[in-house]
């Protein structure tokens, strides 16, 4: 397995062995060339699974994170919801959590842009939302700050990181006002309890809205 295609499986049932872990993934159609059981700093058992590629690992995480592991000889296992994260994140704080989503989003899109060079339409990134947040609710949160040209909600990259959204304002002042007012706002159902709002470089993300 690739070192960079290794993920940790948290909250595994007591008595889980590396074979259990291997079978858990195999049953779902994911071959792990390498699995082992490790212990976290605070003494909890954690599964370690390596995959053949990062793509397979991400697919497995999407499919199996937030599910339960079932063993015939361990009925209590079915009540433990496991969650998976990429090895190396080291039990992140909420801020670090958001960093990783943002890094992922920015790889997909483009780097953020310094406030003072903004002109023309401006996009706000909003992360860590409740998974089922209605578009109407987001619109009503962001509408007071200015004219919204477009609002786009994306499904979670990992279930436990929440949905994220892009809100395109017709000018940067509205976007900056929204960021200042809404960043860190508490939201029921948000995986970390509060949302993260930031300026997002818009050029690649919104073809057609390139400012000047």
Automatic annotation (TrEMBL):
Domain RRM span(s) in chain numbering: 122-202
Domain of life of the native organism: Eukaryota
UniProt keyword list: RNA-binding
SMART domains: RRM (SM00360)
Record has Repeat as a keyword: no
InterPro entries to which the protein is assigned, alphabetical: Nucleotide-bd_a/b_plait_sf (IPR012677), RBD_domain_sf (IPR035979), RRM_dom (IPR000504), RRT5_SRSF_SR (IPR050374)
Entry GO terms, CC: cytoplasm; nucleus
Entry GO MF terms: mRNA binding
UniProt-recorded name of the protein: RRM domain-containing protein
């Amino acid at each position: 397995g690739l070192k960079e295609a290794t993920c940790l499986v948290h909250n595994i049932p007591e008595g889980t062995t590396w074979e259990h872990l291997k079978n858990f993934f195999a049953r779902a159609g994911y071959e792990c060339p390498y699995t082992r059981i490790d212990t976290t700093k605070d003494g909890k058992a954690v599964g370690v699974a390596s995959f053949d590629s990062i793509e397979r690992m991400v697919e497995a995480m999407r499919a199996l994170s937030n599910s339960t592991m079932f063993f015939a000889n361990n009925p209590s296992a079915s009540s433990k919801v496991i969650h998976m994260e990429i090895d190396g994140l080291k039990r992140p704080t909420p801020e670090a959590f958001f960093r990783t989503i943002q890094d992922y989003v920015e790889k997909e899109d483009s780097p953020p842009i310094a406030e003072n060079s903004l002109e023309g339409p401006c996009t706000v990134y909003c992360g860590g939302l409740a998974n089922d947040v209605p578009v109407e609710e987001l619109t009503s949160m962001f509408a007071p700050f200015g004219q919204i040209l477009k609002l786009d909600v994306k499904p979670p990259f990992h279930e436990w990181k929440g949905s994220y959204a892009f809100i395109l304002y017709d000018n940067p002042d509205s976007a900056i006002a929204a960021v200042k007012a809404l960043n860190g706002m508490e939201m029921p159902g948000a995986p970390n309890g509060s949302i993260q709002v930031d300026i997002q470089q818009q050029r690649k993300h919104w073809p057609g809205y390139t400012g000047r």
